[in-house]
Amino acid sequence: IMLCYLLFPFINHFINDSHHELRSLIGLIAATILFNTAIAIINPALFDNIEILLTRLPIFMIGVYFGKLVYEEKTISHKAILFYCLCFIGAITLRVFKTNIGLPFWGVYQRYIAAFLALPTMLMFSAVLEYISNNMMQILNFFGKHSLEIFLFHMCYRYFFRAFHLPTIYFPNECLMVALSVFTAALYSYFYT
Fold first, then answer.
1. Cα–Cα distance, 161 to 177 (Å, whole number)
2. Helix (H), strand (E) at residue 122
3. Which of 90, 111, 147, 149 could form a disulfide with 185 if both were Cys (CB 3.0 to 4.6 A apart)?
4. Each residue's pLDDT tens digit, 86-115
5. Does 178 or 77 have the greater pLDDT score?
6. Residue in 49, 40, 169 with CA at minimum distance from that of residue 109
7. Which pTM value belongs to this model?
8. Which residues of 93-110 are buried (b: 16+ CB within 10 A; e: fewer)?
């Protein structure tokens, strides 16, 4: 996540300071996927160690693009919404069937499919937010404002749980880690901001 914060000014400049933001975004994502695929083919051992980072860059780029739209309170065209809904349907179809369609690195492509799920999910969530009360918006604002702290505390708690051989994929343990992360982030916010 720190690498994304370091790359943000460059990605933001490339995408949002161009005359064709959407084309720049698509081009940058395509170049990133090609770069990732090249590393996977040339040096599979290296790719296995950094794949989790590299495959998350496209969704970060999408977030940079939409972040500007949200900040400027722009509306999204009906064509774009239709495109995102088609992406959603396609991604859901591929996720539901979970079939290896013969592509190498199918697990990696599953990450990209999940990224396409994020777009329409975000649109649907923002439509719901228009009808939510002020109290709920304050809670969501807290999560948005402190997302980095929550993430970092969550990673610390995951490390702690693993050190004591507590399974982190066990649902009650995951709920406990999330609750502890939010609580710790709230304490941190209270005392240090």
1. 9
2. helix 106-129
3. 149
4. 777 776 676 666 555 555 555 666 677 777
5. 178
6. 40
7. 0.61
8. ebeeeeeeeeeebeebbb
